Amino acid sequence: MAVDLTQDPAVEELARRTAQFVREVVIPVEEREHGVARSEDVRIELQRAARQAGVFAPHVSAEFGGHGLDMLGRAAVFEQAGYSLLGPLALNIAAPDEGNMHMLEAIATEEQKEQYLRPLATGEVRSCFAMTEPAPGAGSDPSALSTRAERVPGGWRIDGHKWFITGAEGAAFAICMARTAGAPGDQGGATMFLVDADNPGMKTIRHIETLDESLYGGHLELVFDNCVVPDSAVLGAPDQGFRYAQVRLGPARMTHCMRWLGIAQRSQDIAVARAAERRIFGSRLGELGMAQQMIADNEIDIAAARGLILQACWELDQGRSASQSTAIAKTFCAEAIWRVVDRSLQLCGSLGVSGDIPLGRFLREVRPFRIYDGPSETHRWAIARRVLRQHDRAAQR
Ligand SMILES: Cc1cc2nc3c(=O)[nH]c(=O)nc-3n(C[C@H](O)[C@H](O)[C@H](O)COP(=O)(O)OP(=O)(O)OC[C@H]3O[C@@H](n4cnc5c(N)ncnc54)[C@H](O)[C@@H]3O)c2cc1C
Q1: Of 147, 159, 314, 366, which has the fewest CB atoms closer than 10 Å, so is most exposed?
Q2: Ligand 1 within 6 A of 379 CB?
């Protein structure tokens, strides 16, 4: 089948308006807040402005108040939103809420959609996704999942320990992955549960201090201790959690890439503006060969990242698993975007590491992306295994 990456004119128009909104409204707030939204007041201010500009919730269906973009359309709009660290929060497409909305639309019952998806889509509440556990639990290898859920009359009791749960501070609910069958190391047997924040069995241990700060609601360590939930808290069917995680993870990997690509483009724009003005050794910085190489390499990384995202999104829109193309795109983007921000900072000299421009912050914010949504090594391992399996199948024919 021919790959068609043509964007609908309505999507192009939404992307254009998003770019304008981010430059005119969001970046001034980003500058005022030093790159990080630390209060509900800022989140509410930004989301109100996004609603007024008609760019709010581009990803959810019209039934839930959104623009209903497919993955290809999201690629165009999310990159523009990502041009500011606060753009995704403004449009209600920041992680983890955006991935959770995607999964709830795909899997939740009608009652669950009304109770959890609708207020999430309008920005009335936030959410988190609780999968990762301290060693020896789930991390790069989700099959190590050791949080357990046992049947109790009328529901389930969850016990376990999670950490690095983004957005958990102030979230109205968590989607918690727990083992309902088998033992750590087994491939299946996980179930997703919707756990309300006021459940006394879900407790915060601490805020984990990390290199990055801009993902709203921080990264929390949580304990599930005798956390009883009703049967209606099961998202989808019991024991299908790993399958549903794939529904969330493939698209969520791509939307992370889209948002961070916006930051790569912004970094390049800052560096190019500086290289065009700064004069050293008798010429403009941008006319010196090694500076030109950095500008060109940035352009190549950005173009390649964009191309890989679009290819993977097209496959997802065709209903394909896209596991190989999303893994390739995620690995390349996480590393390429880091390179772009790093080169841009280098081009700006001492100014680059100062707080006068945002490149130092961007570098800190983007570094963890090579770890979450699958570390580069896990993806390379999975990519190589698929290639070898393909080789083995071809050799047997
Ligand atoms: C900022 C941030 C936000 C996060 N948000 C969330 C969240 O909201 N919800 C959630 O559930 N989790 C979240 N995580 C957790 C994240 O998904 C995990 O950190 C990630 O899956 C890696 O797991 P781990 O940290 O346990 O590393 P480990 O599994 O211990 O892996 C350590 C290292 O081993 C290497 N490695 C991995 N696989 C292979 C391989 N096959 N071959 C060779 N080497 C390999 C990699 O270098 C890897 O970094 C977040 C993490 C960060 C840093």
Answers
A1: 159
A2: no
